[in-house]
Design brief:
The chain contains no helices and 11 strands. The strands form 2 sheets. Strands 2, 4, 5, 6, 9, 10 and 11 form a 7-stranded mixed sheet that branches. By secondary structure, the protein is mainly beta. Strand 5 and strand 6 (57-59) form a beta hairpin.
């Protein structure tokens, strides 16, 4: 059974740090891309960070140099280390797995977790 389960969300003050984790398990074939998205109330979901099968990482401009995506294949965990958090980082954060690309367009081959809330207070 495919499982993407996030944890690590919570409340943090501006300038603080938080590490999100995502259990990635149950896939019967390799996923090309693992990533993190976020969605704030009233806004569209946006891609935050991606890690592809070649080990290449990409980040949204708004989080570059502050967030780091990584994974532990042995433990089956995907991480998002978030530093220097700002109030505008407040959102529900989702981990995702894409079988074919990091585009995550449409639903075919894409899987999503339920999300974990991060709230940054000023």
């Amino acid at each position: 059974q495919v499982q993407l389960q996030e944890s690590g969300g919570g409340s943090v003050q501006s300038g603080g740090s938080r590490r999100l984790s995502c259990v990635v398990s149950g896939f019967t074939y390799p996923m090309y891309c693992l990533g993190w998205f976020r969605q704030a109330p009233g806004q569209e979901r946006e891609g935050v960070a991606f890690l592809d099968a070649e080990g290449v990482t990409t980040y949204a401009e708004s989080v570059k140099s502050r967030f780091t995506i990584s994974k532990d294949n042995y433990k089956g965990l995907l991480y998002l280390q978030m530093n220097s958090l700002k109030p505008e980082d407040t959102a529900m954060y989702f981990c995702a797995a894409g079988r074919y690309s990091c585009g995550f367009r449409g639903s075919a081959g894409n899987y999503w977790g339920q999300g974990t809330q991060v709230t940054v207070s000023s």
